[in-house]
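Quick illustration, no need to memorize.
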Amino acid sequence: MDQDLHLVYFPVRARGEPVLLLLVDSGVPFNLEEIPLATWGQWKKTRQITNDKFPYSAVPVLRVRREMAQERVKAIWTTLEKDLPLEVRAHIQMVKEAALFVMVRILGMSGSSEWLVPPQRTTIRGIVDRFLRDTENALSELEKSIRVVPLQTDRLTGMAAAVTTTISLVTQVFPSTRGMLGDGGAYKRCGKLWTAVLERPRIAAYWKENKIEAKPWSITEYGTADWIAKAAASFDHPLQKL
């Protein structure tokens, strides 16, 4: 552990990506340890997955050394939300949790080779449709109180990181949704937020250098970027509306 901040996860995107977005954008040095699934399985067999190292016996885990690093973490995760009305803060939290829930729900289906083939694909389209519609409406309402599309000088929020991660998954599973995220699309606020986050200089550079878009989304053999792309090529049709 060379750096004071140490992120531990599997070599996939999924639930680790919102944390990774926040860390990368902060500019604070950190280590990323990606544990192979075989290693994790061996650790479980030998009872090395203990609560002091892995709370809830799960990852991602962010480990922090030294008091100064703890203050850095507070700076990364603390926003001006504490100064907002309780109703607005609750709304922000709901948007973040909804995005994380949808991502986990979709990826929870990736254990089957048929998860991106109809009729399962149709079920996922329904989930995506509701997520984009509800998130667009939620962002529209939040715009009355806060700036939902961050400027490059704004601190990145957990809500923005969570929504961005889920939209990244959605656009890989259903590339046709990209057209709906543009200025003339039904989900333009979602699209603007997603684009603004991924175009932030540190994030854009890290994503390119580490080829993040080519990484698997889940730990199953059916959650790879290639598997998702092949299914999209066969079943995602731009003329089919969500």
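DSSP finds nine helices and three strands in the chain.
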